[in-house]
């Protein structure tokens, strides 16, 4: 494959994330992405070997940015890790109840769709979610150390449970088109995390589309 033009490749990825976030992966044609990215029609294979290869890069790039955002949140000074984790869940809710599709979680949007269709994309999802869970586990451990969290199980196990809880919650919010699943997930999350801090939670973005 030829060395891609960074600007054209980036445009394809950025517009691709927005369109795939709205429609899913299988329903989106390459020409639609290329037109939105203002890249000449038929030139897709100058940048990616296949649609699956594009999907892998799309997911890897998405998780790179996602993990960077998590790290920035968890590194904020002046907050306990209980507060940081609750802010993380609030950001999750805001992302899934917002009005745009560009920022939607691709793990939620594509997890069930592509895992049975593309092994390379499944592995990209596995890599990305593992990185997310690892950061959650680190924050959980630091919460124990700063005294804001109390739980008995290993941080790695709890991080996996919490991520699975919120992944499933996001799907249920789509099905019900209400924020009720998020309210239930927040309640259970607070019970699992322990501690005595009370997070400020709001639902002001509509329903979980």
TrEMBL record:
Keywords: DNA-binding, Transcription, Transcription regulation. InterPro entries: Homeodomain-like_sf, HTH_TetR, Tet_transcr_reg_TetR-rel_C_sf, TetR_C. Transmembrane segments: none annotated. Residues 6-66 form the HTH tetR-type domain. One of its GO terms (molecular function) is DNA binding. The keyword DNA-binding applies. Residues 29-48 bind DNA. It comes from the Bacteria. This is TetR family transcriptional regulator. It comes from Pseudomonas synxantha. The gene is nemR.
């Amino acid at each position: 494959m030829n060395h891609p033009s960074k600007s054209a490749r980036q445009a394809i990825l950025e517009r691709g994330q927005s369109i795939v976030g709205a429609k899913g992966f299988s329903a989106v044609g390459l020409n639609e992405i290329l037109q939105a990215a203002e890249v000449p029609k038929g030139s897709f294979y100058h940048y990616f070997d296949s649609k699956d290869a594009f999907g892998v890069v799309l997911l890897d790039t998405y998780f790179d940015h996602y993990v960077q955002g998590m790290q920035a949140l968890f590194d904020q000074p002046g907050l306990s890790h209980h507060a940081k984790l609750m802010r993380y869940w609030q950001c999750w809710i805001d992302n899934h109840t917002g009005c745009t599709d560009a920022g939607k979680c691709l793990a939620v949007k594509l997890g069930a769709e592509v895992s049975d269709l593309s092994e390379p994309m499944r592995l990209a999802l596995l890599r990305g979610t593992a990185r997310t869970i690892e950061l959650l586990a680190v924050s959980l451990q630091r919460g124990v150390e700063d005294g804001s969290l109390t739980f008995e199980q290993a941080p790695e196990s709890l991080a996996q449970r919490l991520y699975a809880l919120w992944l499933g919650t996001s799907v249920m919010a789509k099905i019900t088109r209400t924020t009720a699943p998020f309210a239930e997930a927040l309640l259970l999350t607070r019970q699992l995390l322990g501690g005595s801090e009370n997070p400020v939670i709001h639902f002001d973005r509509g329903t979980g589309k």
